[in-house]
Structures are given as structure tokens and as C-alpha cells.
TrEMBL record:
Protein name per Swiss-Prot or TrEMBL: Sulfur reduction protein DsrE
Organism lineage: Bacteria, Bacillati, Actinomycetota, Actinomycetes, Kitasatosporales
């Protein structure tokens, strides 16, 4: 049975500890060989844009750009369709490797066998 972890992160700079926890858990899971799908929603949507993760700071936390790179290397990052639209973000705007998809895709991912889902 394949183990997959789907993480939906809603927090951004508005809740830095919660945001950092989500990205850290995702990066550690990828490094551990777990299939990871990280969903950017709400305020975390901004991290789909080039350079935005570099603006994020949290003392004693791994740099967000490094975590995102690690996740993209071995996992998948998805920006919520509605969240992107509300922020006027298009596929042409996002970091290479980030896809834009909606609730139907999210539900399909979390309903798979062997899937664990977390929301931050």
C-alpha cells in the first residue's frame, strides 16, 4: 500500500508558526520517502508566486524557500483554483512546478487508499 500525505495549508504570514509547521511536515515527509501533496489555500496562496517565500521569516524555522524546493523536488504543490482567482494569480504567474487545481482534485486525492490528510 502506497503511503500518501495530503496537506492543506491555509495560513501564511498571518499565522507564521502554523504556516511553517505545514511546510516543515511536508518537507520532512518527502525526505522520508512519503508521497506528498501540499495544497496552498487562503493566505498561503501567495507562496506560489516567485520570491514571496523569501519574504517569510520565522525565528528558529527552516527558510521557506528551501522547504518549498524540497517539496517540489519529491512531491507536488497545488494552488487552489478559487484562491488563485481571488488573488488574480494565473498559471503564468506561479513558481515552476506549482499547478492550479480545484476541490474536485483535492477530494480525489484525500479519498485515495492509504492517504492521510492534514490541515494547517
Amino acid at each position: 500500500m502506497t503511503k500518501q500525505l495530503v496537506i492543506k495549508v491555509t495560513a501564511g504570514a498571518d499565522a507564521p508558526e502554523r504556516c511553517s509547521q505545514a511546510f516543515t511536515v511536508a518537507a520532512v515527509a518527502v525526505a522520508s520517502g512519503v508521497e506528498v501533496s501540499l495544497w496552498l489555500t487562503g493566505e498561503s496562496s501567495w507562496f506560489a508566486l516567485p520570491g514571496r517565500a523569501a519574504e517569510f521569516e520565522l525565528p528558529h524555522a527552516a527558510p521557506l524557500p528551501e522547504l518549498i524546493d524540497a517539496i517540489l523536488t519529491g512531491g507536488r504543490v497545488t494552488l487552489c483554483t478559487q484562491c488563485a482567482a481571488r488573488r488574480d494569480i494565473t498559471e503564468d504567474d506561479v513558481v515552476e512546478g506549482v499547478r492550479i487545481a480545484g476541490a474536485q482534485v483535492f477530494v480525489r486525492e484525500i479519498m485515495g487508499e492509504g492517504v492521510q490528510a492534514l490541515v494547517y
